[in-house]
Structure formats: structure tokens, C-alpha cells
Write a structure and sequence with these properties.
Number of helices: 7
Largest sheet: 6 strands, mixed
Strand order of the largest sheet: 9-8-7-10-11-12
CATH superfamily of the largest domain: von Willebrand factor, type A domain
CATH class of the largest domain: Alpha Beta
CATH architecture of the largest domain: 3-Layer(aba) Sandwich
Amino acid sequence: MQFRAVLCYLCAATLVGGLAYAAAPGQIRVQVNQVNVFATVRDKHKSIVTGLTKDDFQVYEDGQLQEITDFSAETNLPITLGMLIDTSGSEYYMLSSEKDAGSRFFGRILRKGDLGLVMSFDTDIDLLADFTDDKGVLNRALNRAQINIPGGGSITTQGPLPTSGSGGTNFYDAVYLAAHDKLSGEAGRKAVVVLTDAEDTGSKLKLQDAVEAAQRTDTVVHILLVAEDGGDQTVAKRLTDETGGRMIVVRNEKNLEAAFDQISEELRFQYTLGYTPSNKSHDGGYRKIKVDMKNKDYSALARRGYYAPNF
């Protein structure tokens, strides 16, 4: 199936996002009327804060305080993780370091019950490894990523994700397809880590489409902004802020390792906050979420909203 046709189909499809949710520790169940928010808490020194209870949090939806009915401080809830690597020419000098650091990251973060996948994107979007718990498969997939050279030299891999062949760097399309096409069918915690300069020059979809796909599938997007000039921080920050992720500017190998360490912390030390919305309307509309800490020396990183069901 051609890339254009698939994107047209995906744009026409609708998803019900934001409604999943914690049951017994280590398990996830779905309850249509409950919203789940994952939050990472840091203190004023940027250190992870553990040992909190639900009374330390306040959750607001569209400005209305909500009652937190489910709470968990588990650090071992399963996670489904996608790693997206920009293989356009702008990443030429850092790609080798990215692959090495990414391999070590998978080694640290993935535990029993977790799944990972690897995608690359440039003028094409290639699925290098589908969901697997085999770190060897993921490492070999990372090693196969290579810079796309105009006029030839790009890798070709087997599906199921389609490619465009239209030129440019298809960053927005890659995030959209990772969230909508791959992660939408997964349960529990879902995250995407993207290594890129966030400069899109070829996508058929817009930034808002990528943001919305992540929001509708409860996918947290973290971006390691790998660029000597800092990359497009406005784009990267919007994607991460709206989905509850972190943007980290990376300019050298040392920064890259530190950035992966920070993302590892964010993924492993999360609180789960569940609530039944006071707004019972099933109108498909976007609802804003705000997570506040009663201790003002703490700050919570969490997604900013979700889409209500439409049925």
C-alpha cells in the first residue's frame, strides 16, 4: 500500500484516547469512564521525587479539580517503547554515537514484560524492528540504520510501515505512524524517544497531526534534539510538552549519554493518577489536564490533555 493512500486512510480514522487504566499493581485494565495520567515528579534541584501519595497531587480537567480515585507509585509497570532515529543528512556526524547510546539505553530500560521497536526516518520511514522483548534484535536493528544519501545509499527494510520516497525529512509522519499505526493497539504505558533535529522538510502531515496522534493513543513523546545549532526547539517542545515528555538539547556524545540517563529516570519513576471526569459528555472534544503539586518545591511532568470518547 502506498504511503499517500495509507496516510489518507489514517487521517480519516478516529481513535478514542485517554481512557485506560490501572488495576492491580503491574496490570492495566480498560475503563471507558476513567482517565489515566502518568506523572514524573522532580524537586527544585531536578532530582526525581519518590515516596509520594495521591494527597500530594491535584489534577484539574478544564480548570475543574478532579477526585483522584486510583493511584500507583509502581516503578515496574510494563512499558512499550519506540525509538525513532533521524537518518537524514543532518545527523551524519552523530548517528554512530546515537546507535551506540540507543543500544545501551535499551539495555538499561527494558525489563521483563516490556516491548521495544526501532524506526528510522528521512525521505522514507522504515520499520527496522517490530515490537519485541529481544534486546539483540533491537540492537541489530539500530546497527542497520544508516544515513540516507540523496540519489542512493538509503536502506530498505521490510514493512509494515509504508514509505514516501518524496524527498525531505518526514519527522511528523514518522511520529504519527509510530503512535497511530503501531502504539494505538498497545495497552499500558507507551512512549516514543526520537533522536532528531526536529526540522521537518518532507512530511505530508502537519505537526498538529503528530501531536494529536500521540495524545489520542496516550503516547508520551521524548525528543533528544541532536543538532549543533540546537535544532527546531519550538517544534520539539510543543510535541513533548503536549504529550508529557521531555525535550533535551544534545550537542555532543557526553550530552547524549546524560540525556538517555534522564529519559530512563522519567520512564521508570512515574506515578499513575486515575480519575473519573466530572464532565460526562462523550463529545469527542479535547480536554485540558493540569497536574499540580501541593508542595511547590516539586513539579510534575505529565500530558496536558486527552480526547474524550465520541459514542
